[in-house]
Design brief:
Blueprint (H helix, E strand, L loop, with lengths): L5 H8 L3 H9 L6 H14 L3 H10 L4 E6 L5 H16 L3 E6 L4 H13 L4 E4 L6 H5 L5 E4 L9 E4 L1 H14 L4 E6 L10 H13 L2 E6 L7 H14 L5 E4 L2 H13 L9 E6 L12 E4 L2 H16 L7 E4 L2 E3 L5
Helix pairs in contact: 1-2, 1-3, 5-12, 8-9, 10-11
Length: about 325
């Protein structure tokens, strides 16, 4: 008899060829019963593991999936650029997905990435529960969110950044502070920026208020609405800590339009250190994250896991205060 093929195994086990190959490559969710059926058929037919080795070596796609909320957001645009560049230098291509912070869209993307056989997924979008990640069965790295003890994550030192930002405003004489940041129900580490803000204003006994974007935190029109609201309710606010440079840029615009002088009447500090901030006058004071180093590490952590190495779980990057013209 000829050497048995994967087709013979599929026929014998009463499943599709795809299912046999998924069992061989251990991809996707498979019941123990199904695996037992396929392995049983392989044993009966004396199906040789060299075929298994071949199908395994073929299964490396040299593609990494990246899921971000919006690539149009300058922070994620820059991050994606660095990830793509670093992956390319290592012989990998990138498959990019925008989740728009929509759960079902994010699940669709994960399914699509798995069926495209990507070698790993970098998650910069965080609407899903931990369970969804555990079903992925691929190397995963997350940005700004600690999911579990066995999924590595990357973030900047958010708490330290929040301390630096708030302390600067207070030291420069601000007495009515506002923080504008992401939605408190999103389970993300960047909320530590707000925590640090709270700690400093309470320690120093400074008047403060906090405004939060809705769950879809990357809607630029909403920033304008929040600032309008802030100036209506607290016209004498004299310091704003924005949890991104984009929000800080909208704050600068709102001050211009309402006749507030920056930094004389009101001081503004952002977070991220995106290169676009160079377009603004005065230049925005910011807490700079090392975006390029973070992007490179995300790729390295995927590649290490693809090679079968174990990696450290926590990667917190230092931040730097970069003083511009808005403080």
């Amino acid at each position: 008899m000829d050497m048995p093929t994967i087709k013979d195994v599929a026929l014998k086990a009463g499943v599709s060829v795809t299912t046999v190959s998924r069992v061989l490559n251990n991809r996707g969710y498979l019941s123990e019963e199904l695996k037992a059926k396929v392995y049983g058929a392989m044993k009966e037919l004396n199906y040789r593991p060299n075929e298994l080795a071949r199908s395994l070596s073929r299964s490396k796609s040299n593609i990494i999936g990246l899921i971000v909320p919006h690539v149009s957001h300058p922070f994620f645009g820059e991050l994606a650029g660095h990830i793509e560049d670093h992956a390319y230098r290592h012989g990998y291509k990138l498959l990019l997905c925008n989740s728009q912070l929509d759960k079902s869209k994010e699940l669709d993307h994960i399914d699509m990435l798995r069926s495209s056989r990507v070698d790993g997924i970098i998650m910069g979008s965080h609407t899903l529960e931990v369970e969804a990640y555990n079903q992925i069965h691929l190397p995963v790295v997350t940005f700004d969110r600690k999911l579990s003890d066995d999924i590595p994550y990357i973030c900047s030192d958010n708490y330290k950044g929040g301390l630096l930002a708030t302390t600067l405003l207070v030291d420069r004489g601000c007495r009515k502070l506002a923080h504008i940041g992401g939605h408190p129900h999103l389970n993300v580490l960047s909320l530590d920026r707000h925590k640090a803000f709270q700690d400093i204003v309470e320690q120093r006994g400074i008047w403060h208020t906090s405004l939060h974007t809705d769950i879809n935190g990357f809607n630029f029109h909403e920033y304008e609405r929040l600032l309008e609201l802030l100036f209506q309710e607290h016209p004498d606010v004299d310091g704003i800590f924005a949890s991104s440079d984009v929000i800080a840029a909208y704050a600068l615009k709102a001050c211009r339009e309402s006749g507030r002088r920056v930094p004389e009447d009101i001081k503004i500090i952002g977070y991220d250190g995106i290169s676009l901030r160079g377009l603004l006058t005065p230049s925005i004071t910011t807490i700079r994250q090392p975006i390029e180093a973070m992007g490179k590490l995300a790729v390295d952590l995927i590649l290490e896991q693809v090679e079968g190495h174990s990696v450290a779980m926590e990667h917190i990057f230092p931040v730097e205060l970069e003083v511009g013209g808005t403080t």
